[in-house]
Write a structure and sequence with these properties.
The chain has two domains: 272 residues, Spore Coat Polysaccharide Biosynthesis Protein SpsA, Chain A (Alpha-Beta Complex); 100 residues, Hexapeptide repeat proteins (UDP N-Acetylglucosamine Acyltransferase, domain 1, 3 Solenoid). 21% of the residues lie in helices and 24% in strands. It has a seven-stranded mixed beta sheet with strand order 5-4-1-6-11-8-12, with helices on both faces. Strands 15-18-21-24-26 form a five-stranded parallel beta sheet, with no helix packed on it. Strands 16-19-22-25-27 form a five-stranded parallel beta sheet.
Length: 409
């Protein structure tokens, strides 16, 4: 049933946060939790970034699409309370996979996931849908982007940025002088420029429905031509793959796609190297701005006592979260809740996610230690690690489906 109350552009918009991916490139941090639930900057979770951007932008209808290991993620989201999204008519909705209708079941890609949610978006009465990933660090007021989308009569608005990374990892965008997107090339081998999509999109619901219908009809015709029995039971929309490969190019081809340029910091942290780099940027003061006035990063805080820095401890250039206890030396590092650095231990350029003890005699350099990790005494890590050479420590034992519940966070 559509919302019977009058709507403005904000309340006629549903934000779909795609949070169901396995995040295998961030393993082993994602072996026992969903990628959006991975801790970041000590006391936050990755999903806090997109949730805070939406809350500060006044977007009241936020639907989190889940699939892989949602348990800890749901515990953290707390039905939207940390972001004031626990309303009656408007607020947070959790969208887990389900059985019972043709469009439900496990998604075969984020394009399929978008198709699965379209009927619910239409039934809600929204005319605009924002599609955002939960694995990027950036701070943006989405209201100007939404206003530009409606003023231009766009079917799709791509929020873009100039990347300092390899653009072939992203969707590369070409635009004209009027900010109209003239070409979208998903993960090209030979990218034409450094302007990329941030994986944040604003879509017209009607246009999206038309494109999905056309793509699904085309896939159905191709499957029928193959005449293979393996195609008969495939769920509708499962051939859509990644929306960057199918849905976005189809919308761009209709000629009513524009960009909205994000000029600030943006980092995709889908890999361990990017995760580590993003934390070093935060510590250096040129990454995600945790102190941005009027735009705090909101989270479901863990009730722990203040950090304790004992006499004789040395701490510099670091983030030390509540519940941490430091006796030793910590430099250019992040200590999550419950981390203990014993006397004689040294932590340098490392990220300790929480509830771990760095014993006397340990010297960590460029180490990521997961929640509850076993950290042995001795020298661990590389002084000058290269790509793919970050040392990751995990708990020596973990229940098959513990999802961090044993750590209390």
């Amino acid at each position: 049933m559509a919302d019977p109350f009058p709507q403005d552009p904000l309340t006629a918009t549903v934000a779909l946060v795609l949070a169901g991916g396995k995040g295998s490139r961030l393993a082993p941090l994602t072996d026992a939790r969903a990628k959006p639930a991975v801790p970041v900057a000590g006391q936050y979770r990755l999903i806090d970034v997109v949730m805070s951007n939406l809350a500060h932008s006044g977007i009241r209808d936020v639907w989190v699409v889940e699939q892989y290991r949602p348990f800890t993620l749901n515990q953290h989201l707390a039905m939207g309370r940390p972001w004031d999204l626990d309303g009656t008519r408007h607020g947070l909705r959790l969208m887990p996979p389900a059985e019972g209708r043709d469009e439900e079941g496990f998604a075969a890609g984020n394009g399929h996931a978008l198709h699965q949610q379209l009927a619910a978006v239409k039934a809600f009465g929204a005319d605009t849908v924002m599609v955002l990933s939960a694995d990027h660090l950036f701070q943006i007021d989405l209201r100007p982007a939404l206003a530009a989308h409606h003023e231009r009569g766009s079917e799709l608005t791509v929020i873009t940025t100039e990347t300092d990374e390899d653009p072939s990892r992203f969707g590369v965008v070409q635009v004209d002088a009027d900010h109209r997107v003239t070409d979208y090339d998903y993960k090209p081998r030979h990218p034409k420029g450094r302007l990329v999509a941030t994986e944040a999109f604003i879509m017209d619901v009607h246009a999206l429905g038309e494109v999905l219908d056309a793509l699904i009809a085309e896939a159905r015709e191709q499957a029928a031509a193959c005449e293979g029995p393996e195609n008969e039971d495939a769920p509708e929309g499962s051939a859509l793959g990644d929306y960057g490969e199918s849905i976005v190019p189809a919308l761009v081809a209709r000629g009513r796609t524009h960009e909205y340029r994000h000029e600030g910091y943006w980092r995709d942290i889908g890999t361990l190297d990017a995760y580590y780099k993003a934390h070093m940027e935060i510590l250096a003061g040129n990454g995600l701005d945790l102190d941005r006035p009027g735009w705090p990063l909101l989270t479901n805080h863990r009730p722990v006592p203040p950090a304790r820095i004992h006499p004789g401890a040395e701490v510099s250039g670091s983030l030390v979260c509540s519940g941490a206890v430091v006796h030793g030396t910590v430099t250019e590092s992040v200590l999550g809740p419950g981390v203990v650095v014993e006397p004689g231990a040294t932590v340098h350029r490392s990220i300790l996610l929480g509830d771990a003890v760095v014993p006397a005699g340990a010297h960590l350099d460029a180490v990521i230690a997961d929640v509850g990790a076993h950290i042995p005494a001795g020298r661990i890590g590389e002084t000058k690690p290269g790509p793919g050479n970050i040392t990751v420590l995990t708990p020596s034992t973990r229940c098959a489906d513990s999802d961090d519940e044993t750590t209390g966070h």
